[in-house]
Amino acid sequence: MHIGANLITNDTTISILDVAPRVEAAGLHSIFQGEHSHIPVDTVFPALDGTVPDFYKRFPDLFVTMAGAAAVTTTLRLGTGVVLPAEHQALRLAKAVASLDQLSRGRVDFGVGYGWNAPEMTNNGVDPARRRTATREHVRVIRQLWADDVVEHHGELTSFTPSWSLPKPAQTTAGRAGPPILIGAAAGPRTFADVLDYADGWYPLTGPTLIDDAAELRRLAAEQGRTVEISACEMAGQSGIPWYCDDAAAKGNLRDAAQRYADGGIDRLVVGVPVDSISHLEDALAVLADVAVACRRDRTNA
Fold this sequence. Notes:
The chain contains nine helices and twelve strands. The protein is of the alpha/beta class.
C-alpha cells in the first residue's frame, strides 16, 4: 500500500514550493489537495457547529498550486482531492488537467467529487439537486476531449461545436487516454455505479466500514471483468489523531491503521499533514516516512 499526504496549503501557510519537495524526499507516493472556487458567507460547514474555519475560506487555485508542485518534484504523484467538475466548464477543465499532466510528465491523479456546498454550487450555476448528473456529463465529455482529435458535444448541460482540445494528457490509464479518475464520495450504490461507469477508482474518507465497502466495490468490478484502484483519505481523528498527523505519538496508531487498510485491500492511504511551519511538516513527514517504509516492507514480504 502506498502512503500519500493530504494538504491544505494557502496564502497563510508555507508554500507548496516548500511542501512538495519535502513530501517527495520523505519517500511518499503522492500529494492531494482540494478546491473551492469561493465560500459563500451563508455556507453551513458540516462540522464545528456549522462555522466555516478560516483555512476553508482560503483555497488557492488548484491547478496553479499543482503546477508549482510539478515544477519542484520529479516522481511525486499529483492528486486533485477533489475537483468539482459540475462547477467547471468542461472544455476548460479538460485542458487544465491535460496541461498539468503534460507539465508533470504524466503524474496526475484526477480526483473528482460531486460537491456538498449548495450555495457555492448555486453561485456557479449548478442546481444542487443535479450535481451528480452534471458531474457525470462533464467527466464523460472530458474523457472524450482527451481521447479524440475533434470532438463535438450537444448534451443536457454542455454543448459545443466540433473542436480541437490540445494538449492531450501524457498518461494512458487502462487503455484510455488521460490520468486515472478517482471518485471522491461516500460509499453507496450510486457512487459505485459511477465509479464503474466512468472512473478508474474510488477515493473516500476512511471510516469503520471502509474495508467492507471496498470489498463490495471490488466484487462489483469483478463482475464486469475489471479492477478498480481504492485510495482513502485519513482525516478527522480516524486513527486517534486530528485532521493531520504531526508527531511521533501518532506513529503507532497510523502503523496499525495502515496495516489494517493494507490487509483490507486498500491501495493507497493519504494522510493529512500540517503546513503551518517547515519543522511541523517535517516532524509529520518523518512519521509518515516510517509508515511508508513499513508498508513497502510488507509488500515485499507478501
